[in-house]
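FORM 7B: Structural annotation worksheet

SECTION A. Query
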Amino acid sequence: MQFRASIAAAVSLFALANARIYGIAFPETVKAGDQVNAIIETENYFQTVQDIAVAFGIAPEASAYPGTLSTVIGSFYLGPEKSNVLDNITETVTIPADLAAGTTTLTNYNVTITVGDATSENYVGSQ
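SECTION B. Predicted structure
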């Protein structure tokens, strides 16, 4: 009976080492031309997941098309070092300087943000 308890504990600890990406977060308001942190949100998962790369795109809300990147603002290799990790991953992207003020959409995990006069400290995440 004690042997089973030891195996269960080991399996539980092994499960804690598995993770996957479940969304992204960006400052709620960004200033055109600013560099901002893009947060790739991760969570505990029941199996190993190999995430290879991530790319971010931005578009004015009126012209955003689901499943497309529109204007690419950053792409990053994740590979083994940043794949299957429990801690959120932060990458820096630059908001295009010529992006007009107003509501924009980040795709493929959709996050709606506002382009304004200053970059906010408040982050909003994908749903």
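SECTION C. Observations
Residues 4 and 113 are 50 Å apart (CA to CA). The chain has one domain: 2-125.

SECTION D. Sign-off
Analyst initials: ____
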